[in-house]
Amino acid sequence: MSRLRTRPTRDDTRDRLFEAAARIFEEQGIGGASIEAIAAAAGFTRGAFYSNFKSKDELIIAMLADHVEQSIRRNLDLLDRHKNLADFIDALKNMDKSRQDPLGRSPLLHMEMILFVARAEKRRPDLAKRLRARRKLITDIVETTLKNSGRNGSLNPAWTGAIVLALEDGFRLHRLIDPETTPADSFLRAISDLQRAIGISSA
């Protein structure tokens, strides 16, 4: 009796390529990583890679898009369960990172990939879409937590969201440059300090 041969779905193939690419990028650098090495690390042929992505740049854009989509779902789910800022920050601190996508598990790789893509001017509009989506997510979080703290209208959520996002990316870049003086939790610590400074209660 012959066995049924099961093939990975398109989503499974992409996920395996994402995981393999993250490993190869961290080991060999983004610029030095070859499509052959990524495909082999995922257990696929070069042809399987090209059936999903036209180039390494397209793979990277897809990984960034996937990360933003997963981050939005994850954060909105947390916000639904933790509606004040202090509790939301605590939930972020205690989140199980092992279950996140490769870029969620490695914020430094995320920043490296953003910088790599940003060097190509024609790719910047793709990055801009992800940036706007991230900014809107943080704006929604700020708006919801301000409303639930009774301080709705005390701050401009869109501008505050832009500041918070710049702060997050800044700490990621600083950690990439000088990890010794930039702890992994620097961003969340800074947000907690700001929350106390502007007097948003945890009630």
Automatic annotation (TrEMBL):
GO molecular function terms noted in the UniProt entry: DNA-binding transcription factor activity; transcription cis-regulatory region binding
Pfam families reported for this sequence: TetR_C_31, TetR_N
Keyword DNA-binding listed: yes
InterPro entries the record matches: Homeodomain-like_sf, HTH-type_TetR-like_transc_reg, HTH_TetR, Tet_transcr_reg_TetR-rel_C_sf, TetR_C_31
DNA-binding region per UniProt: 34-53
Annotated keywords: DNA-binding
The HTH tetR-type domain, residue ranges: 11-71
Superkingdom field: Bacteria
Annotated protein name in UniProt: Transcriptional regulator, TetR family
Organism: Bradyrhizobium lablabi
